[in-house]
Amino acid sequence: MKQLWIDCDPGHDDAMALLTTIAHFEQANILGISTIGGNQTLEKVTKNAQNILSFVNSEIPLVKGKEGPLIKSLHTAPEAHGNTGMDGSFFKENHYPLVSENFLQYIYQTITSVEDKVIIVGLGPLTNIALLLEVFPDVKEKIEYISIMGGGISHGNVTPLAEFNIYVDPEAAQIIFQSGVSVVMAGLDVTENAEITVQEIQNLEGKGKASHLAYELLNFYNQSGRQFGFLNSPIHDLCAVAYVLNPTIFEGEYHHVEVVTDSGTARGLTFIDKRKNSKVPENTFVLKEVNRNKFVGLLVHSLEKLDLY
Ligand code: BDR
Ligand code: CA
Predict the structure, then answer these.
(1) Which of 8, 48, 168, 263 is 20 to 30 Å from 41 by CA-CA measure?
(2) 233 CB near ligand 1 (under 6 Å)
(3) Among 128, 164, 155, 141, residue whose Cα is nearest residue 237
(4) How far is ligand 1, taken at its centre, from the CA of residue 166, in Å?
């Protein structure tokens, strides 16, 4: 059984990642979920996480993390995810409980209390995870790897060079890449090919409770994606959990990845060292190719499983 901690900022694609992982409870145990200000404010993304977890009758501990990045102020993405951060669906009023303890302490204690190593999944700006590694460095021994959606080695989306999650908190991202913990990076190079088509979104309509929720959310996300030139919808964050659940969906290569933290046009850029005589050790498995059919199949199958509960 894999042991997972998921850090997220839901977010339409975060929602797909959460639903898919929850559906795989027989193979992946989610020890807890933390939220981070990103796609929307911390209050809003936490409410969205509560809505999703309540929707599936989950009992997974939910912890509210940090409001914003380590140094700069928070940059949100309402143009992609709407005013709530997860526009497109209406959820029943709920009071899904939040863990009241200090979030870093709680994550640390949870990870160090299980026998196996834990996989950390980062679906938003990497602030919470960076703080965890800085404040409790011994936690690194308990981490199998950190699977992130973030960055890209050929282009960005917020700026020509920087992807949203890294752009929001480059200092945090650099801490992760330099931590000595293995990283799996699902950057834009692969996530923009991990698309669901308009027809595949349409096929989810009215199929069952979870499928229909995904239909509503993805429908909004598809419409908002048009302004960025996407006809189909890349489900970026789902890549980071799909790799954990079934690595054969992807192909990748080991590289040394770094982040530009200078202020200037390259802020938030992730780059790899491709020099043949490079002496820097590889720190990241960079995902390069996705089998789109298997990827969408994983989502559809997971939703069908949730439909039965
Ligand atoms: C990333 O940014 C967010 O808007 C998405 O949820 C995803 O994590 C894609 O660049
Ligand atoms: Ca996200």
Answers:
(1) 263
(2) no
(3) 164
(4) 10
